[in-house]
Amino acid sequence: MTSEELEMLYIPGKRTELLRGQLVVREPPGTEHGRISASLAYFIIAYVRQHGLGEVFAQDTGFKIESGPDTVRAPDVAFLARDRAGQVPRRGHAPVAPDLIVEIVSPGDAPSEVLAKVAAWLGAGVRLALRPALVRARRGCGALSCSAWRGRRQHYLTDSSRGARRHPVCFRRSRTRSCLPGRAR
Q: In this structure, are residues 133 and 107 in contact, taking their beta carbons and an 8 Å threshold?
């Protein structure tokens, strides 16, 4: 299948991508996934617009990152710098890799599949890939952990009060609190 054929395909209630010419059909993401995606997009859009940096794309926007056979991937959030935003056609899938992508890990996602997706994005030229994951932390606290890749190096977002240790951080109201046992909540 080609990128052009994928563009004409519509399967109600499903997400579609193309992986080396093979159609990939998935269920739509869950509510929590959508909430995280919308929140991240909101903050990224605000920053990008304030500084005139480029364009931000929402969930399910397809980018053609390989040809012959075609691969079309759709990140949860994508950013394309102003100097490259002109490469986005009004119709079809943009034949360019975004500068930043966000791939949110859903509970049903296999870690190997998510890592393969991130590797494909980086191989296509993405400068920074973020992989937030909602995790169930101690004491029932909902936590968001995030891995970031720049080139081949992986980085973790950490709680600055704990130094370089990797652990989940809770986001509640306007304060950031650690979910580690024995810490004030």
A: no
How do 169-172 and 77-81 pair as beta strands? unpaired
Q: Which residues are bridge partners to 177 per DSSP?
A: 170
DSSP string computed for 71-127: EEE--SEEEEETTTGGG--SSS-BSS--SEEE-PBPTT--HHHHHHHHHHHHHHT-S
Range from 38-47, 88-97, 161-170 carrying the lowest mean pLDDT? 161-170
CA angle 39, 133, 122 (to 5 degrees): 90
Conformation bin of residue 163: beta by default, left when phi > 0, alpha when psi is -120 to 50: left
Tell me the per-residue pLDDT of 105-127, one tens digit each, with 9 for 90 and over: 877 777 778 778 888 888 899 98
How far is the C-alpha of 185 from the C-alpha of 181, rounded, in Å?
10
Residues 24-29: contacts with CB under 8 Å, at least 24 apart: 29/59, 29/76, 29/104, 29/106
CA 46 to chain centre: 17
Per DSSP, 31 falls in state H
pTM: 0.75
- Strand pairing category for 142-150 and 77-81: unpaired
